Amino acid sequence: MTMMKRFPLLMTFTIGLGLAMPALAEAESPMGEWARGDGAAKVRIAPCGENICATNTWIKPGTKSEKTGDVLVMTISKDGQGTYKGSAFDPQRNMNFKLKLTVEGKSMTTRGCVLGGIVCKSVSWSKVK
């Protein structure tokens, strides 16, 4: 099995958090509902315990490697205006990876990397709510 097939949620979203909640209340916050650029998934980003989680709320029918309810736990911190960096854990696949996300208005780009940054993928998102 190729590495890309082993971590679809990682590539679906790429976000768990040690970030203060007031800092996330600003306009460039990743919190809310997001639709993936390819139209195949929607996620809700919200606090979950001490972290932040991206939970699949809708997956396009016929998508084999993802399902509604899959969760990505993120530990990120603010790195600049609308930019966050850190790590994420995909409990469905027992995988950790580095994560960077950039929020600009109603658009977000996520970038997840595994294998020490050798394998990376960026995904675009549009804010739904």
UniProtKB/TrEMBL annotation:
Domain DUF2147: 32-127
The keyword Signal is annotated on this UniProt entry: yes
Gene3D superfamilies: 2.40.128.520
InterPro entries attached to this UniProt entry: DUF2147
Superkingdom of the source species: Bacteria
Position of the signal peptide: 1-25
Residue runs in coiled coils: none
Keywords annotated in UniProt: Signal
Keyword presence, Signal: yes
PANTHER family named among the record's database cross-references: BLL6627 PROTEIN, BLR1215 PROTEIN
Name assigned to this protein: Uncharacterized protein (DUF2147 family)
Organism from which the protein derives: Gellertiella hungarica
